[in-house]
Amino acid sequence: MARRLLVLLLLLFTTNVGTADEKLPDAKPVPRMQVLPLPHDQVSVTRDGKELTRYHFAPDLERPFLYPIIGPSGRSLTRMGHPHDPNGHSHHNSVWVTHHDVNGVDFWADRSPGKIRHVRVGQFVDGDDQAVIRMHNIWIDTDSEKKLLDETRTMTVVPLEDDQWLLVIDLVLTAKNGSVTFGDTPFGPLGVRMAKTIGVHDGGGTIRNSEGQVDEKEVFRQPARWVDYSGPITNDAHEGITLMNHPDNPTFPSAFHVRNDGWMGATMSYQKPVHLKQGESITLRYGLFVHSGVPSAEKIEQAFAAFRELLLLPAQENRR
């Protein structure tokens, strides 16, 4: 019986039976960039079927984050946690949004009362030129259960040549219950924990900024338009990420906090607290240029110019 079934299957796939496959006259083009909802509160962004990044927003997380950030080589350019202090720096989750001082509440460290909770999905968009994830979150002081901030986070992924890509993160933070002060701190609103091999200490990588400064000694907490962290990702490839601060940000050009151990972050209230009245919002935009090689300053400036002028899709809730 099994042998007969095998023969019939072979005949089916080797014999020209009937006409060719049926046509789909109304078939639509398949978008190059796609947003794929996944189990366990995750959303993947793919280019031509290959994952570029994934957004994690499960209710038991301290805050949402993006991991991995896949470079042209196919490996993640970011990691989860500090390579030498995974317990003390467990909050270093690849690419994440947070702040060290919101009305005196710490949203930075994992063991602090400040938590960022997912509320609802706003928008998923597929397309050839960009893919979009829009999410709504809330910032809560878990000691008092007071909701301090409403957050709308829009993450747009734009494909570039040579398997490079651009991630644009737009944030709208609104004072929820009374006024809010973002205190004087270099920690927040955006952090990037680079892969261990890219770090200056561990991998022999390098940090550079738009002002021509190099590595932690010179770049540390200095204002700039962008900071780039590049280094080895394989034995044959160097890759990196340029973190860019948009000129329309109200605190531009703000300082960047960097470390030779593989960390960089964009600040918004360092040495100058930011105040919001009840119902007021602050709007921020940051870019991550995911690139091959160790690009020249001229090449990074070209990417920064494209980021500065980029027109993103208009908001349209629940679009799919």
Question: In a nutshell, what does this entry contain?
Answer:
The chain has helices at residues 2-14, 200-203, 215-219, 297-309, and strands at residues 33-38, 42-47, 50-56, 65-69, 95-97, 114-125, 131-141, 146-159, 165-175, 180-182, 189-193, 206-209, 222-223, 226-232, 238-245, 255-259, 263-267, 274-276, 281-292. The chain is mainly beta and 320 residues long.
- Give the termini distance in whole angstroms: 48 Å
Main β-sheet, spatial strand arrangement = 1-2-3-4-5-11-17-16-13
Described by the principal axes of the CA atoms, the overall outline is globular
Radius of gyration: 22 Å
Assembly type of the chains comes to: single chain
- Helical region count? 4
Beta-strand fraction estimate: 35-45%
Uncertain spans? none
* Sheet with the most strands, sense and barrel status: 9 strands, antiparallel
SSE topology string:
HEEEEEEEEEEEHEHEEEEEEEH
Task: Explain what you see.
This protein is mainly beta. It has helices at residues 2-14, 200-203, 215-219, 297-309; strands at residues 33-38, 42-47, 50-56, 65-69, 95-97, 114-125, 131-141, 146-159, 165-175, 180-182, 189-193, 206-209, 222-223, 226-232, 238-245, 255-259, 263-267, 274-276, 281-292. The strands form three sheets. Strands 1-2-3-4-5-11-17-16-13 form a nine-stranded antiparallel β-sheet. An eight-stranded antiparallel β-sheet has the order 6-7-8-9-19-15-14-12. Strand 2 and strand 3 form a beta hairpin. The mean pLDDT is 93.
